[in-house]
Design goal:
It is built from two helices and seven strands, in the order E-H-E-E-E-E-E-E-H. With 155 residues, the protein is an alpha+beta fold.
Length: 155
């Protein structure tokens, strides 16, 4: 479980989607960092900096670059929980957020897999940035991701 500094305003984004494939197919797709670019919106100009394949495990570090509203961002994530095929957690170690903890869950249900995302995050510069920039951008990114996953893994 992540530790959150006292007084930090934490926002939570939740997203869920059902894919008509077993966990045995879905989890490995997410465990392959090469697939990050496939499910990231093109307007973010995502570029993996860490050489792939990455050995996914607790403590693995993943570096990438992207652009947020035209600004170049370097991001480093650390895998802080690795529990295949049920879940994993990545936490930002360097990047645009004061805090970013992203839990991915995979549950076999109804002849497929429910993919869950819970992101706890804190923004820099306060509530207006969250309300008018970060919150809407994150919702748009996760909607794109859902659509792309349905295209790639739907039947």
């Amino acid at each position: 479980m992540a530790w959150y500094p006292e007084g930090m305003k934490i926002h939570t984004l939740r997203s869920e989607l059902w894919l008509p494939r077993p966990v045995a197919e879905v989890f490995p797709f997410f465990a392959d960092t090469a697939n990050l670019q496939r499910i990231t919106p093109p307007w973010l100009r995502f570029e993996m900096m860490t050489q792939v394949p990455v050995e996914m495990r607790e403590g693995a570090l993943i570096d990438y670059r992207l652009r947020v509203r035209g600004f170049p961002i370097r991001w480093r994530s650390e895998i802080t929980c690795w529990d295949p095929p049920r879940r994993f957690v990545d936490e930002q170690r360097r990047g645009p957020y004061r805090l970013w903890v992203h839990e991915h869950t995979f549950t076999e249900v109804e002849g497929g897999t429910r993919v869950g995302d819970t992101v706890d995050y804190a923004v820099r510069f306060g509530g207006l940035v969250q309300r008018f920039l970060v919150g809407p951008d994150l919702r748009r990114i996760f909607e794109y991701r859902k659509k792309k996953l349905q295209e790639l893994m739907g039947r």
